């Protein structure tokens, strides 16, 4: 079996595999449109001895927000295998190869949307992002209130203005994407609907909603409120459509407070496990990670295991300055005892650093081991920040 990048002349074969695996059919026009944007260098395939394509996946070069800092991230997508090649280890080899590729690309983390969480957990990805989906009947909408400023519909969406609002909001979470102009134009604004922006009294944009109404249902594609005034103004704007729909659907972050703020909080709510994250290069990621400040310089020893990225295996001394700057040092030939440090695998590390899972919780459920003192130290140094992703890839 050979693992290599796809070639431009293998585009049709790749599209045939994707359409079969994900059960959709593209028109000739759609295929030609896709061809014009196809980036073979991001597409990796597993081929048999005769050169036939068996499996493939895409590594999308992206950036995501982590603790207020944007980091290079490899987005895994389009994982597909022909049925006759399944259960032969093709995807396993592709995933392991992708880790080395992402490491060489400086992508210290990776994210993906799994068909099965249990499958990707075997390769070091962990569920870090949950979302809430609301279905709200018209009678349950928040009361309309007077707010300063105004909400204006955009006749032609301005991605630059929208991105300024979005970036201010997205940087408050872990896992949100840094959206490029191409992403806005090809992934967001291609959806059918209306964009409305809230401007404060000084005409500064502070929130927006992108929505569509069809068959008496209002669907929110994208909603960003950077403060309470913009939130109230946008809900009032949506409420002014009440004669046009019977219910609305909206997806929100796991910490979204809307039900608590509604007069009638008995709306339909679903908590949906959404995306998984993996730390590709632990040493590099820990150096880039914005840690919380402390009262003094502190250190802890971490014994880390990773079954599919051998470069992450080892015992490390993690030092923090009072200000929260980190240094990490590999201790060659060392082994950490429970009294000296913390032991965990790469999944637990991702859950703690990107998924807002507290070390004390992971210790309680047996995912990490160590003394209570060291667990508490690590917990103090990890800033609390909800994980959220508004996009899909």
Automatic annotation (TrEMBL):
Domain N-acetyltransferase residues, every copy: 1-142
Species of origin: Cohnella silvisoli
Listed Pfam families: Acetyltransf_17 (PF17668), Acetyltransf_9 (PF13527), SCP2_2 (PF13530)
Transmembrane parts of this sequence: none
Keyword annotations from UniProtKB, A to Z: Acyltransferase, Transferase
The enzyme's E.C. designation: 2.3.1.-
InterPro entries registered for this protein in UniProt: Acetyltransf_17, Acetyltransferase_Eis, Acyl_CoA_acyltransferase, Eis_dom, GNAT_dom, SCP2_sterol-bd_dom_sf
Taxonomy, superkingdom: Bacteria
Full protein name: GNAT family N-acetyltransferase
Keyword Transmembrane helix found: no
Enzyme superclass (EC): transferase
GO function terms (MF aspect): acyltransferase activity
């Amino acid at each position: 079996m050979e693992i290599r990048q796809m070639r431009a002349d293998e585009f049709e074969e790749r599209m045939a595999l994707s359409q079969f695996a994900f059960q959709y059919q593209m028109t000739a026009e759609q295929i030609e449109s896709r061809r014009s944007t196809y980036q073979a260098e991001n597409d990796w395939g597993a081929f048999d001895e005769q050169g036939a394509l068996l499996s493939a996946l895409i590594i999308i070069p992206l950036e995501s927000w982590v603790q207020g800092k944007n980091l290079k991230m490899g987005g895994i997508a389009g994982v597909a295998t022909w049925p006759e090649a399944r259960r032969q280890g093709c995807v396993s080899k592709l995933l392991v190869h992708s880790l080395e590729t992402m490491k060489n690309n400086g992508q210290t983390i990776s994210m993906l949307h799994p068909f099965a969480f249990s499958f990707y957990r075997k390769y070091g990805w962990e569920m870090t992002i949950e979302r809430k989906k609301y279905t709200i009947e018209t009678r349950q909408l928040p009361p309309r209130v007077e707010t300063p400023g105004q909400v204006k519909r955009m006749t032609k969406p301005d991605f630059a203005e929208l991105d300024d609002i979005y970036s201010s909001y997205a940087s408050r979470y872990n896992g949100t994407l840094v959206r490029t102009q191409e992403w806005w134009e090809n992934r967001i604004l291609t959806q059918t609907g209306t964009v409305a922006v809230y401007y404060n009294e000084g005409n500064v944009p502070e929130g927006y909603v992108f929505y569509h109404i069809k068959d008496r249902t209002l669907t929110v594609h994208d909603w960003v409120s950077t403060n309470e005034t913009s939130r109230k103004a946008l809900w009032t704007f949506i409420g002014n459509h009440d004669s046009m729909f019977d219910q609305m659907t909206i997806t929100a972050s796991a910490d979204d407070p809307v039900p608590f703020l509604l007069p009638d909080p008995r709306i339909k709510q679903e908590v949906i496990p959404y995306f998984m994250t993996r730390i590709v290069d632990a040493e590099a990621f820990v150096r880039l990670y914005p840690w919380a400040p402390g009262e003094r310089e502190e250190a802890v020893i971490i014994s880390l295991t990773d079954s599919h990225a051998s470069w992450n295996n080892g015992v490390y001394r993690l030092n923090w300055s009072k200000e929260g700057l980190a240094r990490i040092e590999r201790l060659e030939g060392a082994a950490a005892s429970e009294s000296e440090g913390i032991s965990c695998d790469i999944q637990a590390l991702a859950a703690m650093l990107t998924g807002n899972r507290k070390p004390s919780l992971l210790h309680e459920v047996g995912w990490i081991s160590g003394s209570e003192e060291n667990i508490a130290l690590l917990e103090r140094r990890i800033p609390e920040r909800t994980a959220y992703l508004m996009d899909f890839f």
